[in-house]
Design a protein that fits this description.
3 helices
């Protein structure tokens, strides 16, 4: 099984970082209002960046690292 850390762009141009097992299902869940509380009022959401990991722990560590970054730094890895 693979795990992913991802960055999603919300409809208000904010960025949300999370982790999941399936990118397309996670994007669908966010857009159906079943994702994170942060994204619920900000749909539609589009996952614009992801990284693949072998373990959940590694994906969560990367999620935490990215969440500490500024928006500018997040935008730089998206491009």
């Amino acid at each position: 099984m693979s795990y992913y850390t991802y960055i999603a762009r919300c409809n208000d141009n904010t960025l949300y970082t999370g982790y999941c097992v399936n990118i397309s299902q996670r994007e669908k869940a966010h857009n159906e209002g079943k994702g994170a509380k942060y994204t619920r009022p900000r749909t539609p959401v589009k996952i614009v960046y992801s990284e693949k990991f072998k373990t959940k722990s590694d994906a969560m560590k990367r999620e935490f690292e990215i969440k500490q970054w500024t928006k500018a730094k997040k935008e730089s890895i998206i491009k």
